[in-house]
Inverse folding.
């Protein structure tokens, strides 16, 4: 089993961060959170992390003249804290190929839709507008595209006739809190093997370094 140090990127309240912290505290994920980085100074995710004694950094996008400088600042923080796995927990900015290449195959994201349907920032709105009967969430590896990396885990929820974006989001979020820690655990236990677009999950007995 690999000793992983997680670097978690957030933009908002950090409810997925909280679910990951809780899973680590329950010793379900054998890893530590090395740093939590937010792109907003007032992101509540930073408060959640500080309350648990986790190092935090605000790397604010508007403080930098260029996107490349912003991402370099985040990468510098990741490297300074020894991060081995980057986790996007409600991080609302698309990463450039430069950032992705710095952690190739070592960036996980959660998206509030059943990819490849409804990528982007308005998944619940788009799902309701399309009239789907089932929605859900997806944990995937991050590549250079928009929510286009290989899928690790998915969970579905029914879409109700009277759903709003808010009610659907709340139902999906319950599943996000369940499968995101599970996917991180699978990664940390070295049980994921990627073959093109397919991610194979190995039984626990077959994990370990290749």
């Amino acid at each position: 089993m690999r000793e992983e140090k997680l670097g978690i990127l957030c933009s908002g309240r950090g409810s997925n961060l909280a679910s990951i912290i809780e899973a680590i505290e329950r010793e379900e994920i054998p890893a530590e959170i090395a740093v939590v980085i937010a792109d907003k100074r007032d992101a509540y995710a930073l408060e959640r992390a500080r309350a648990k004694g986790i190092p935090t950094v605000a790397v604010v996008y508007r403080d930098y003249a260029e996107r490349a400088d912003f991402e370099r600042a985040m990468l510098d923080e990741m490297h300074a804290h020894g991060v081995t796995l980057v986790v996007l927990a409600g991080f609302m900015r698309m990463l450039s190929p430069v950032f992705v290449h710095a952690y190739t195959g070592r960036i996980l994201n959660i998206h509030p839709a059943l990819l490849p349907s409804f990528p982007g920032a308005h998944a619940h709105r788009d799902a309701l507008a399309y009239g789907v009967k089932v929605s859900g969430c997806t944990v995937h590896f991050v590549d250079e595209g928009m929510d286009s990396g290989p899928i690790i885990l998915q969970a579905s929820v029914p879409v109700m006739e009277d759903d709003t974006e808010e009610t659907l989001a709340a139902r999906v979020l319950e599943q996000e809190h369940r499968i995101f820690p599970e996917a991180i655990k699978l990664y940390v236990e070295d049980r994921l093997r990627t073959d093109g677009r397919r991610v194979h999950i190995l039984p626990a007995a077959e994990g370990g370094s290749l």
Notes: The helical segments are 15-25, 44-51, 67-80, 97-102, 123-130, 165-188. Residues 160 and 167 are 9 Å apart (CA to CA). The chain has a mean pLDDT of 96. The beta strands are 4-10, 31-38, 56-58, 85-88, 107-111, 134-141, 151-158, 192-195, 198-201.
